[in-house]
Write a structure and sequence with these properties.
The protein is an all-alpha fold and 498 residues long. It has 22 helices and 2 strands. A two-stranded antiparallel sheet has the order 1-2. Strand 1 and strand 2 form a beta hairpin. The two termini are 48 Å apart. Keywords: Membrane, Transmembrane, Transmembrane helix. GO terms for molecular function: transmembrane transporter activity. InterPro entries: MFS, MFS_dom, MFS_trans_sf. One of its GO terms (cellular component) is membrane.
């Protein structure tokens, strides 16, 4: 039963924000827990098998290529699931599709120890299921921002919801490290994460609804704030999306490029941090978990602060704020990523510091390309952010792919450095491309709605008989002029760089 609305003091949206955040974190933690348990699953001699040449090896010992395949299985699942799940969000809202995805994630995580025991093919199947569930994350962020975030709190919502990857690392790595070295063993890490996921998604299904104006715990005061300065098309929950117009928009394409490059780099840094810290920098397993958590968590206060500052500072032009935050989040992160490859592996403290600085800089992205994409796409932000999720799952291919291409011995820094140089250079390039197109104005495609498309069709159909009577010859289509086209022409009064 929901609590009385007076309990929330006109801030019920924040309860949904944090429930949604922990659900996102749960799905991410569920797929990433194995990244840490890799380094302790093979320990011990209780489950040895014959490798085929008379040598006994651990049942859970995986080669670098097998580890890449295990990671790629999630990427494949996410690629397969991204657009079907996004379609489900558009048609049915986020309540049930996100809940079902969370349950799939929890189940596949709980079964993971058994899957690993049964062999690599079975393990990959359940990793694929985790990937299907993970595909639900970014579209959920888009729905929460579109439906529940006031325009004046866009960066705050984005800063909290998009830090689930780092928070999952902060929780998962030390917890998995402690469980691995305890009497409970590495299997408990999967069971604990699965149980947490079930709890969070039960809260989600209890409290969440897609329409603020229909929710019994949203007061008139809060509803007015949520809907303030939004168009009716933004407020209405319509399944229409002008895909073609969005895909041709320069601003959105550049936002996606920045997102993709950053996703590849953050995947590289977070997924391979336990292996890099342990194998190259030489830290013990237990200390590795603490250091990785430190490197991925220290930026969080800066991320929240940056999101608030981006919303609250009104004396600086919005476009200039976007460029400033994006230069830190993408450009400076690229510089520090490049330096990881320059400093030698025996400079362990410097390596940890550069990892930390690179990830910390990325914490400013809510005020950069994320905010640009959300404000430009307005009511269609869920599709823009869902596409970023698609790019994130492609990044799950690209990051392990670059590692597999250059790294044959995980202990050799001279092989890892090429991976960091490539990622750093691409980050710097992405920021330079972003600077000239940054804008906070709604894109022209936000004026294209189901109504304008239907009006265009009616006008075109009405114009056809006139064309036939004037020509007195064979049927001929009228010119391309349409209400949607007229809408786009009228939208020239809306400032936009595209």
């Amino acid at each position: 039963m929901l609590l009385p609305s007076s309990i929330y003091c006109n801030r019920f949206r924040y309860l949904l924000l944090f429930i949604g955040f922990f659900c996102l974190t749960s799905i991410c933690s569920n797929y990433s827990v194995i990244n840490f348990t890799f380094i302790c699953m093979a320990d011990g001699d209780s489950e040895l098998i014959d490798s085929g040449n008379g040598t006994l090896v651990s049942r859970y010992s995986y080669s670098p290529k097998e580890k890449s395949a295990i990671i790629w299985a999630v990427a494949i699942g996410t690629i397969v699931g991204t657009f079907p799940i996004n379609y489900a969000y558009i048609q049915y809202g986020a309540r049930w599709p996100f809940f079902i995805s969370g349950m799939i994630s929890a189940f596949s995580t709980a079964i993971m120890p058994l899957a690993a025991y049964l062999g690599l093919p079975v393990l990959i199947v359940f990793r694929f299921m985790q990937g299907l569930a993970y595909a639900a994350d970014f579209a959920a962020i888009g729905i929460l921002c579109v439906r529940w975030a006031p325009l004046s709190e866009t960066s705050l919502f984005i800063s909290i919801l998009t830090c689930f990857t780092q928070i999952s690392s902060v929780i998962t790595n030390p917890l998995s490290g402690w469980l691995c070295t305890s009497s409970l063993g590495w299997r408990a890490a999967f069971y604990v994460h699965a149980a947490f996921g079930v709890l969070m998604f039960c809260l989600w299904i209890m409290f969440y609804q897609d329409d603020p104006h229909l929710h019994p715990d949203v007061t008139d005061v809060e509803l007015e704030k949520i809907q303030r300065d939004k168009t009716q098309a933004h407020i209405d929950r319509d399944s229409f999306v002008p895909y073609k117009a969005i895909l041709k928009n320069t601003v959105i394409l550049v936002v996606w490029f920045n997102a993709f490059v950053e996703m590849v780099t953050v995947t590289l840094l977070i997924v391979y941090a336990p292996i890099y810290f342990h194998m190259v920098l030489g830290y013990e397993v237990s200390l590795t978990g603490i250091l990785v958590s430190f490197a991925t968590s220290i930026h969080l206060p800066l991320k929240f602060t940056g999101g608030l500052l981006s919303d609250k500072i009104t004396c600086v032009e919005e476009r200039k704020k976007m460029i400033f935050f994006n230069t830190i989040a993408v450009g400076m992160a690229g510089v520090f990523c490049t330096l990881i490859g320059i400093f030698p592996g025996d400079w362990s403290k410097t390596g940890v510091a550069l990892f930390t600085l690179s990830i910390t800089c990325m914490g400013m992205n809510p005020g950069g390309f994320y905010k640009c994409g959300t404000l430009s796409s307005r009511q269609y932000a869920h599709f823009v952010l869902a596409t970023i999720q698609f790019m994130k799952c492609v990044a799950l291919f690209v990051a392990p792919g670059t590692v597999a291409l250059f790294v044959y011995d995980e202990r050799r820094h001279d092989q890892w450095r090429y991976v960091y140089w490539i990622n750093g250079a691409l980050l710097i390039l992405a920021n330079f491309v972003f600077i000239p197109i940054a804008t906070d104005q709604p894109a022209s495609f936000t004026l294209i709605t189901r109504a304008t498309v239907e009006e265009e069709k009616r006008k075109r159909d009405a114009a056809e008989p006139l064309t036939l009577s004037e020509s007195g010859s064979s049927p001929r289509r009228s010119g391309p002029t349409s209400s949607a086209s007229k809408t786009l022409e009228d939208s020239k009064s809306v400032p936009e760089k595209a």
